[in-house]
Queue: 3 jobs
Job 1
Amino acid sequence: MIANINNEQRQKDLEQIPKFINDSDFEYKFQEYSAIYYLTNEKLSNLYNEINFTKYKTALTVLSSGDQAFNLVLEGLEKIDTFDCNRLAEYYALGFKKTAIQCLDYKDFTNLFYLRQKKLYDLESEVIKHMPEEYKLFWKEYREEYRQYYPYPSVLGLAKEHNFPNGNNIYFSKESYKYLQKR
């Protein structure tokens, strides 16, 4: 989690978004500010089947969409450290997505990735309402800023594409999702 996000850093992070969100070359670049991955593009379920997780209690993984860490939680790991060069990844993965997992039922969570416009905006609002203050402030300011361009600005507006199959994640089954919520 971002340790003590101050207003100055949050403002700097918010100020960077217009520089790339309206850029036709807006894509997933490995730099301080770029598009977020809204879901993993790796087939984690296949990869994790090749690892004997009973030997491990800790892991280090890229944060990105948060899916690597969330799937490791499902595998029973107890301490997971993450890293990412993209500052926006943390606001999304640990601010938005982690909170969504904690507060939404399975149907509403999966709807986050398929709904559009007003329904998505309302569902995202519910998630934002429940997140830790340092993340809540970022997303509220982001939405306020982008309301001038879009009537229902979405958190997923920071992603370049929305076409990754959810079959890459172990937690996209109802039973696994409920278990992840408990963990």
Job 2
Amino acid sequence: MSRKIRQPQKIFKVFCEGGTEHHYIDELRRQKKLSITLKLVNMEGGGYRNFLEQVRADGTTNCLAKFIIIDGDRAISEEGEKKNLDELLKYCILQNKNGRIPHFLIVNDPDFEYLACLHTPRYNGQNAAQYLLRELGYKSIDAFKADKKVYHVLNTNGNSYEQMLSQLKSENCFVINKYSINKKQYEMKVSTTYDWEKLGRKASNMNEFFEVINDFHT
């Protein structure tokens, strides 16, 4: 009897900054037993361009999709970053149009601190930094960013990512990725739309990350 050939495991690749996003997604991966590989990107000295260079250089073997998770505030506050964001966005769009590995650009606007606040039922648009210190007990924003248990903090005591997802408003999103999934063939098709006039509004398309991951693991 011939030995059954074991198929290599398909994975999602997540590109994110070090710190909060990494700690959060890393623990989410462990808790939910998700097939995710984290790719840390150093933003110093290159910003969004560093993301583009690392995504370009990264391989695609056994990859289901790439998620590029960034904060949107740099495109508004730092000179030249809007152009770099545009290049990253257009690269992702080109990959999706060519039917290659799907690239989901996820923009948290203004930043992940805002998404963290949305995990709590008490948040109502207050200053995110002040809210995290007052309501969640962090001594500083640096302490929040360095907390390896941030996923636990944001998903216990009435806080949850379900709460966060319920508060997101797609009409304010700078980027939206529409997708279809063929689970049997491990295939996805993605089309991306964007609106520069919405950059700077409080919004995120982070729901796409959770939806896609959930669809492939259920």
Job 3
Amino acid sequence: MKKIGKVCAAFGLSTSLAASLLLGGCAKTDDGFGTSTELERDIEEASADVGAAGDAEDASAGNGTKEDGAEDSDGGLEEKALNETVKVTLNEVAHSIFYAPMYVAIEEGYFAEEGIDLDLVCGYGADKVMTAVLSGEADIGFMGPETTIYAANEGANDQVVNFAQLTQRAGNFLVAREETDDFEWGNLTGKTVLGGREGGMPEMVFEYILKQNGIDPDNDLNIDKSIDFGSTAAAFMSNTADYTVEFEPYATSLENEGAGYVVASLGVDSGYVPYTAFSAKSSFIEENPDVIQAFTNALQKGMEYVGSHSAGEVSESIAAQFPDTDAESLETIVARYLEQDTWKSDLTFTEESYELLLDILESAGQLTDRPAYEQLVTTLYAEKAAE
């Protein structure tokens, strides 16, 4: 199984903060929920790749040949030998503690128990994940479900459908320079905040919260959207901004450095938002229902483990996934996510949360149409896994 390890720049910070910035993977793109504009080009390129692959497959079929090791699409795990596994490529938007239940499923062997040999790769952004799924480079994508909405509105031929929801709250936090016990969102009026990328889900959720609290994101405060996601914590330590919006482990790292204090959770104040979900092309789901079910079963086991174990036990389970995060910080971060009810008890993507997602996209000016819930979501596999 592929382990992800990529060193991110430490910007000359102290050893503890530099180590936390590593995150064991591609968390620098944890805001990587691509906009519809970015996806349009990628969908066209992916469609061209799919077309070329289809021509090659047709030619091969015409010659009566088949690649070694290739399997019939209607096989399914139930028909395979007990000691045989199915290779599944999962492309994740980022490698983050925010996605703990998935890593528990990996480390506790739940995918292996379900007959899946999981190849985990990082897409470095949702637009890249979507391109990998559309082109067939990845079997399953893990990203913000708004990307499937963008793809649908851009005219993807083979609809990418969400079949399991992992997180139900935003995973970022508002960090202030000064510690306060009575924070209100109105405190941001007239202040400077290091925000997220324009059109990215973290920034859209942040602005949605501001609007819900009667604050105009364009006129009542200054939101700096120019700094790369992975650099905001370092920038906050060296500039004069009053607040910064941070994912973990950056928020905890700033607290450990005495450089900032978490004063609000965007996950709590935005409500239950379907922040990340697993999706696949309709054709893949139709041709491999047993694979999708087995995959979802493994995830459900990971969800149940997280729901029935302490933060210490969960952090110990996933420690191998984050070798550059010390045990104490890892447990603190997991505890923070548990306390705000980040993960559901099951993987069902409800219509209510889907409609909230559409409202957030519409509020941010990122929505050209509202695709029907039934068009982009199936709950069949999640409901069966939860039985």
